[in-house]
Amino acid sequence: MNAGCGEGVRGLGDTEAKGGSDGIGLVAFAVLYLMLLTSTAGAQTPKAHFVGSESCKSCHAATYTSWKQTRMANVVRDPKEHPEAALGDFLHPDPLVTFGLDQIAFVYGSR
Prior knowledge:
Layout: H1 14-17, H2 22-41, H3 61-68, H4 71-74, E1 76-77, E2 107-108
Antiparallel strand pairs: 1-2
């Protein structure tokens, strides 16, 4: 004979049907677990953020110096530090140019 729905299957509710208290213990464990989980969530370290490639220089001087010479290291440039990286003509008025050099956040690529 085939087992019907729930017949022959032992699960967490078996002891409850017989008057046991395993279900209450399981609920208590789940509540305690969730309380611990949420209380440690606030105590986590702050999110990681980019600190800049200069911060690697002190511990990895040789690697940093070598990397600094690559195109990858110089592909994105700050026009405030490297105004020559912006190739547009910002000295002569042009009605099509609606921004100034001071409004450029970064330049991708250079000569």
